[in-house]
Design a protein that fits this description.
The chain is an alpha/beta fold. The chain has 3 domains: 37 residues; 209 residues, 3-Layer(aba) Sandwich (Rossmann fold); 171 residues, Ribosomal Protein S5, domain 2, CATH 3.30.230. Helices cover 26% and strands 24% of the residues. The protein contains 11 helices and 21 strands. β15, α8 and β16 form a beta-alpha-beta unit. α8 crosses α9 and α9 crosses α11. It is elongated and about 80 Å long. One of its GO terms (molecular function) is serine-type endopeptidase activity.
Length: 450
């Protein structure tokens, strides 16, 4: 028999090595290699099945009908609600609002069901969780709290009072005493997640897990954690902005293109079915250097206002951006200089979005170019105008995807004119006129009296 030799595993990503090394070769983290001895496993023996296999046409689908969470934006991301037995992992940076969101969800579900909802806190005491629940208005007599860090004890709570939903905050703080290692280690996270998945599947119990993230934004723990769960949601947002976005990066029961929007306030977290108010300034007056575009977050159209300033420099010219892709802005500046002769070489250029929005997709190029041209000319664009299109290095305005969705959102927000790439074959909704532009020069002539 082979000797049971020690193995070294990275506590951050799970990479294994036969000897200790100072730096993980996979995630390049220093000092994360931990020694453990793998337990020998015996070969599996055949056992009689507990139930015979059933033809797929005879499987009852009603047993997996979705149940609403009471939070519309979360239902949108999940594909319609919670599936019985689904394990959902919610990951995000510290302080982004993960615990607040799940506590609010737990309270909403407890109000919709007579069965209790069990909230397990591995990081805070029950009294601390209650203080947050009072602040955000998540008090409910059927919402049960327990501060536990042992997997077996959590299963005991479920046996004693079967809940309609189990929330575990967080999976990195729970331990399985039958497995060696500290809480949050590779072996512990793997064992705890496997145990919770088995609990969910065997009892058709939906489980919501909170997951920590590493410095680079990836989910802490081994990659098998993401493979074991059914849904992986990323909850993110700018720390200095009220906006929070929920995205499903993996979903076995629905699409991964949907995005949910929330607003983090002192009283808790609110849904934002219409977040356009955060991304648009007052449109009653037009200001030079501003242009609106519509981006697609998954399948959801989102308005974004791009603002630009071009001023005489006090020293060497600077290029400062916020919320936009700096490399695409640099290319847009080059196109305006070479194709239109706009003097930007000797100016400080500042380009930003408002409300913490992100404008990183190519479809925002034309809006950025028009806002820069408007800032240089010190002339506002015509009111009620937005721009959609990718700008090539030749100055050509190229087509973008989802144009019909973007125009529909523009009509809903009250815009009356849209600049779109020439040759776009799309059904134009009522209430808006479109101008087909071939290049940036044509777009500038369309909206600026130069």
């Amino acid at each position: 028999m082979a000797k049971n030799r020690p193995t070294f595993s990275c506590s951050e990503c799970g990479w294994e090595a036969s000897k200790w090394v100072g730096r993980c070769a996979q995630c390049e983290a220093w000092g994360t290699m931990v020694e453990y001895r793998p337990t020998p496993t015996a070969s599996a023996k055949a056992l009689a099945p507990t139930s015979p296999a059933t033809p797929i046409t005879e499987v009852v689908a009603s047993a997996s009908e979705r149940a609403t969470t009471g939070v519309g934006e979360l239902d949108r991301v999940l594909g319609g609600g919670l599936v019985p037995g689904a394990v959902i992992l919610l990951a995000g940076e510290p302080g982004v609002g993960k615990s607040t969101l799940l506590l609010d969800v737990a309270a909403e579900i407890s109000r919709l069901n007579t069965d209790p909802v069990l909230y397990i806190s591995g990081e805070e005491s029950a009294s601390q969780v209650r203080l947050r629940a009072e602040r955000i208005g998540a008090m409910s007599p059927t919402l049960h709290l327990a501060a536990e860090a042992d997997l077996a004890t959590i299963i005991g709570h479920v046996d004693a009072n079967p809940p309609s939903l189990l929330v575990v905050d967080s999976v990195q703080t729970i331990m399985d005493t039958s497995v060696d290692g500290a809480a949050g280690g590779v072996s512990q996270v793997r064992a705890v997640t496997a145990g919770l998945v088995h609990l969910a599947k065997s009892r058709s119990l939906p489980i919501l897990l909170v997951g920590h993230v590493t410095k680079d934004g990836s989910i802490a723990g081994p990659r098998v954690l993401e493979h074991l769960v059914d849904v992986v949601c990323q909850f993110d947002g700018d720390r200095h902005s009220r906006l929070r976005m929920l995205r499903a990066v993996k979903n076995r029961y629905g699409p991964t293109e949907e995005v949910g929007c929330f607003e983090l306030v002192d009283e808790g977290i609110n849904e934002l079915p219409d977040p356009s108010g955060l991304f648009l300034s007052d449109r009653a007056r037009t200001v030079p250097g501003t242009c609106v575009t519509i981006t697609l977050e998954g399948r959801r159209p989102m308005p974004v206002e791009i603002q630009s300033l071009a001023v005489a420099p006090a020293g060497p010219p600077r290029r400062t951006t916020s919320g936009v892709d700096s490399s695409r802005i640099a290319m847009t500046v080059a196109v305006l200089q070479s194709r239109l002769g706009v003097d930007l070489d000797r100016k400080d250029i500042f380009v930003s979005t408002i409300g913490g929005a992100r404008a990183s997709e190519p479809s925002t190029d034309l809006a950025a170019a028009l806002s820069l041209a408007s800032a240089v000319a010190d002339l506002p664009l015509a009111p009620g105008v937005l721009a959609l299109g990718e700008v090539a290095l030749t100055g050509e305005v190229r087509p973008v995807v989802g144009l019909e969705q973007r125009l529909g959102e523009a009509v809903r927000l009250g815009f009356t004119k849209a600049l779109i790439p020439a040759g776009s074959t799309v059904k134009i909704p009522d209430g808006i006129t479109v101008a087909h532009v071939v290049d940036v020069a044509a777009a500038v002539k369309e909206v600026l009296p130069l």
